[in-house]
Amino acid sequence: MVDQDYGRYSDIFIFIPEKRQVIRIAEGCGDNLLWEDIENGYVDYIYYAQHELNVDIPEVDGGMVLLEEPLRDKYQCMADCIPDVLDMAYGSRIIRYIALA
After folding, report:
1. Which of 5, 24, 28, 83 sits at 20 to 30 Å (Cα–Cα) from 50?
2. pTM score, two decimals?
3. Which pLDDT value is given to residue 6?
4. d(Cα 99, Cα 91) in Å, to the nearest integer?
């Protein structure tokens, strides 16, 4: 079966000039939810990895944004979740970023 929404929900990359970081944002596959998360009402998550803009582009941080409803119900596309990822990663939803192709 072909996922009709794949393009809208494929991984995205953004550059944060102020932090000199590239963030990869991806739809969670469900494997990282703990029993405690499920008991607390979480059903899905967004995974993100922060990479320092450097010669070898090392991963320097990352995490998950836990969701109480399925990602595809909450957001119309992956780009819609960027403010929530920025808030989790940097404590602010209002950080300048550049979407990368």
Report:
1. 5
2. 0.89
3. 59
4. 19
